[in-house]
Design brief:
Rossmann fold; 10 helices; three-stranded mixed beta sheet; five-stranded parallel beta sheet; alpha/beta
């Protein structure tokens, strides 16, 4: 608990600096050095803390679950699944200052299918069925190993769950996620800032599962 209190004190200082226009990496180094934070704690703060303006801008674009019915969704496939697998593996999740849930790992570019992947996919699709979107795009980062095979598996699941949509492995998923669809489904900061409307699919599932292993900055 002592380290968590220190982490929250550091988070307050970091947001103070961000609100005053400091570069995030520079501000994090100042705060991290002051509180003697280790590499993992600094990584958590980097993923969890944003300026008040960033948070307000994202809040304006958030949609509720009910608003997703009959919309075209653009899903950041690895982002959603990594977050869900983190929960299923009973590891720490971050409820960030912008209210989006994020994993505390650094595996996005080294993702590999695991024993929990099938269950994560099942949870994602069960939720999508309830949301009843008009169409879904699910994009995967092609340079990550076996993304083509993974996209083929997800396309099978789209048919199995009787949804309309397509999964693709592409060289620039961020570009495609913004270009296609009406609502961005991701917790990636760049996508949240560029998307016209946004929704935290993984976060909504995590809340329904009443998962407890969370560091909250809300």
């Amino acid at each position: 608990m002592e380290r968590e209190k220190i982490l929250h004190d550091a988070a307050n200082d970091l947001q103070y600096l961000l609100n005053r226009g400091y570069n995030k990496k520079s501000a994090l180094k100042l705060v991290g050095d002051r509180y003697i934070l280790d590499k993992n704690e600094r990584h958590i703060l980097f993923r969890a803390i944003f300026s008040e303006n960033e948070i307000k801008n994202r809040d304006k674009k958030k949609l509720s679950q009910d608003q997703l019915k009959d919309r075209i969704l653009s899903i950041d496939g690895y982002n959603v699944l990594i977050t869900l697998e983190t929960m299923l593996n009973n590891k720490i999740l971050i409820n960030a200052a912008d209210s989006f849930f994020r994993d505390a790992s650094k595996i996005s570019k080294r993702y590999k299918k695991s024993k929990k992947t099938d269950l994560a996919i099942k949870l994602m699709f069960e939720k999508l069925v309830k949301l009843a979107p008009k169409y879904i795009y699910i994009f995967f980062d092609k340079p990550i190993s076996k993304s083509g095979e993974f996209s083929a598996l997800i396309n099978e699941k789209i048919s199995e769950f009787k949804l309309k949509g397509i999964a693709k492995a592409v060289n620039s998923p961020d570009h495609e996620i913004i270009k296609q669809g009406e609502t961005v489904i991701s917790a990636d900061s760049l996508l949240l800032d560029k998307g016209k409307t946004i929704f935290d699919l993984a976060g909504s599932i995590i809340k329904e599962q009443a998962y407890q292993k969370i560091i909250s900055f809300m």
